[in-house]
Amino acid sequence: MDMAHEELLSFFKALADANRLKILGLLAQGRYSVVQLAEMLHLSPATVSQHLARLAEVGLVSARSESYYNIYQLESATLEAMAQRLLAREALPAMAAEVDLEAYDRKVLRDYAAPEGGLKTIPAQHKKLEVVLRHVVQAFEPGRRYSEKQVNDILGRFHEDTATMRRELVGHRLMARQAGEYWRI
Fold first, then answer.
1. What letter does residue 127 receive in the DSSP assignment?
2. If residue 65 lies in a helix (H) or strand (E), which one and from where to where?
3. Starting from the edge strand earliest in sequence, which strands make up the sheet with 145-147, in order?
4. Which helix (H) or strand (E) element contains residue 93?
5. Cα–Cα distance between 54 and 14 in angstroms, integer?
6. Cα separation of 154 and 80, whole Å?
7. 47 near 36, Cβ under 8 Å?
8. At residue 1, does pLDDT exceed 60?
9. Of 19, 54, 86, 106, whose CB is crowded by the most CB atoms within 10 A?
């Protein structure tokens, strides 16, 4: 995991506590000492100090000394910068960069594929059907037009209910049909 991912994970972990969120909410309204926060939240000063330390680790709060107390404040610039990074179009998808996106498809195909390469059944569940249809449509060449008989011959290798398969391929916009001809989209 790279530094950006670690930073986001630490940020979310820091926010993953109701009391820390309450502390941030209070600090968004003003600056407070540990004792003040502890009284308002009905927590011990030690517990509040632990929460503040966790929030300070990710840069969400800072402290400055006043007399005998540390006065804590929200670092709104850090919060805004993190929010902007999270809302960036590429930020969240990048978190899943190392995930095997095709694992589910392989599992569905294993579950529905017969030993000879056809299908045991046509899935009723929409998501599983989409996986099977994306697999089946690979048997058709892009840019080539097929007669209904040719389509049936190809689909017959997968399942005997070629009419349902044709209808589903067209309905899921993987193939198009016009004047008795079919083609892969």
1. H
2. strand 61-66
3. 145-147, 181-184, 175-178
4. helix 91-95
5. 6
6. 55
7. no
8. no
9. 54
